[in-house]
Design brief:
- Two copies of one chain form a homodimer.
- Chain A has two domains: about 1-65, no CATH class; about 70-325, Fumarylacetoacetase-like, C-terminal domain (Fumarylacetoacetate hydrolase, domain 2).
- Helix content of chain A is about 20%, strand content about 25%.
- Chain A contains seven helices and 20 strands.
- Chain A has helices spanning about 35-40, 40-55, 85-95, 155, 175-180, 240-245, 275-285, and strands spanning about 1-5, 15, 25, 65, 80-85, 110-115, 125-130, 135, 140-145, 160-170, 170, 195, 200, 210, 215, 220, 225-230, 260, 300-305, 315-325.
- In chain A, the strands form five sheets. A six-stranded mixed sheet of chain A has the order 6-5-18-9-10-12, covered by helices on one side. A five-stranded antiparallel sheet of chain A has the order 4-3-2-1-13.
- Chain A is globular, with a radius of gyration of 19 Å.
- Chain A starts with a strand and ends in a 5-residue tail after the last strand.
- Chains A, B: It comes from Umboniibacter marinipuniceus.
Chain lengths: ~325, ~325
């Protein structure tokens, strides 16, 4: 099934969306918000599935689905852990600056805690104070879990994946070196995270969801020009079950935890890239310096994934970079 | 005023607690949960204050307040940012391992994003799988904010502080070096965060709340033996307004954001320490190696702060370290 949160208050209003993303129906009789549904998933899931079947059969009250009216599926969440599971990307970034990749990076996932209190919708502006901060997109896959007990091993973690969506993990590249140098991880350099209009249950992905990975090209565009479409199922060093097990090693994860894959990247980048940093690293390796700039105010970012029939699965992220003026 | 959340479902049940911590009254007529109150603070605050005045005057229905029945004031929050604002502590830790403190640490706050989806109550067990992970307490002060616009400067940030509480930021010391080495910040090494029974409005602190700092000794004990009582208002390099401004530099903070001070520490540690790591660093500097062990299963931790009359302001954190058996 496909779920979305229409903009409404702080937590949105839960709707069920038709498979073809054309129609929606209110889920308020089941749960007012997606977090409320996840809080009682065993009870809510079958009721939401029933609504989804009725909606697809055209037998329920519905209205036209407008992606621009969507907030993030969880407009605010209690936990957002973003990994860097495509180690080939990390290797490339390091190569561009002449640094070695520690061997441990192939067996021990990189993961940071991100800001989950203000996820943004698929068409929301990305507000940034300065272009000098090096504004970049990062196209990723993310999963939403239910409650995961502390110490859950990877072989038991996959069953905790309840929903899947795509993400634009906005990154401020020029703030990253100083933050990583302090060793406390990303903070100011990871300001906003945007989500596709809908999140879907794994069964909705059919054969493309295998081994806790999503085996389809992830399309990233800047100003509607394709930057890349690497396959999210290829070169993912750690699958989502392994990422969940990593996140839950020393404590439990509460329902509604969102775990991101990190920038999708295929070895050699033959199908292009999902962030400008990778493009700039390739340029640096090839010719000594980057030639592609980071994003400017007015630029737009599109992120999408198509099924085998060429239809969008999650709807599209389509958002503009806009200058933010802070309070004085 | 003083607020607490009694254990009830995922978000607790909001109560107003009397100044002397002896009585409580339900706040459900104002807001069912503390997060709900913070979501509409301008409207809820005066109503909660009115309840508090009635309770202290003995003119409202009330019941005996039981700290052991408390969850964290926000049992789950959308944002938990923990700083390391007592740079003298960082300097000491570095000195013990023979490392220099970068000059920038005195002007640019250290801050990491922590896990906010499962805060624990003042009397909850701290569940850890292995003593080999190096279990430690960290006694801290924390503030709860309302909505903070992106780019809010420090001189405007103090007014966003709505509540203050004490924290035990449980740390797994032996997991830290590998995580910091990866530069993505703490994750598995910061499993649980416990809070005092009540959070209080800054006005409740009187003259002790000056310049966005809490000028009172923070008492930390292990097995009811005092480890230290450094003054939280002394040697705090960055006050809470500066920490909020740091956290909000590139994005807004949503209401209910919790910002921690980091382990309270006074230069020279003459009044003792708020974590075992600091004790061990002092031992290492004095005699080449640490002699105080980290916490063992069965050990307990107490954290408290007294007013000028010797009465507890927030109630006491009093919790036991207990072995956790993960699923197989």
């Amino acid at each position: 099934m496909k779920l979305a949160s229409l903009k409404h208050g702080r937590d949105g209003s839960l709707v069920v969306v038709s498979k073809d993303l054309s129609r929606a129906t209110s889920a308020s009789a089941v749960a007012p918000t997606l977090q409320a549904a996840l809080d009682d998933w065993a009870n809510c899931e079958p009721k939401l599935e029933a609504l989804y079947e009725e909606l697809n059969a055209g037998s329920s009250e519905s209205f036209a689905f407008d992606p621009a009216a969507c907030d993030a599926p969880l407009p605010r969440a209690y936990h957002w852990a973003d990994a860097s599971a495509y180690v080939t990307h990390v290797e490339l970034v390091r190569k561009a600056r002449g640094a070695e990749l520690p061997e441990s990076f192939w067996v021990d996932p990189l993961m940071y805690m991100g800001a989950s209190d203000a996820f943004i919708g698929p068409h929301d502006d990305v507000l940034v104070e300065s272009e000098d901060w090096g504004i970049d997109l990062e196209a990723e896959v993310a999963v939403f879990t239910d409650d995961v007990p502390a110490g859950t091993p990877a072989h038991l973690a996959g069953k905790h994946i309840k929903l899947v969506a795509l993400v634009n993990d906005v990154s401020l590249r020029n703030l990253i070196p100083a933050e990583l140098g302090k060793q406390f991880g990303f903070y100011q350099s990871k300001p906003w995270t945007a989500f596709t209009p809908v999140a879907v249950t794994p069964d909705e992905l059919g054969d493309a969801w295998v081994d806790n990975k999503l085996h389809l090209p992830l399309i990233a565009k800047v100003n509607n020009v394709q930057l890349g479409a690497p396959n999210a199922g290829v070169d993912m060093t750690f699958d989502f079950a392994q990422l969940i097990a990593h996140a839950a090693k020393s404590r439990s994860l509460m329902t509604g935890t969102v775990i991101g894959s990190g920038t999708v990247s295929n070895k050699g980048s033959l199908l292009g890239s999902c962030c400008l940093a990778e493009v700039r690293c390739l340029e640096t390796i090839a010719s000594g310096k980057p030639s592609t700039p980071f994003l400017s105010f007015g630029d737009s970012v599109q992120i999408d994934m198509l099924d085998e029939e060429g239809k969008s699965i999650f709807g599209q992220i389509d958002q503009k970079i806009v200058k933010h003026t802070p309070p004085e």
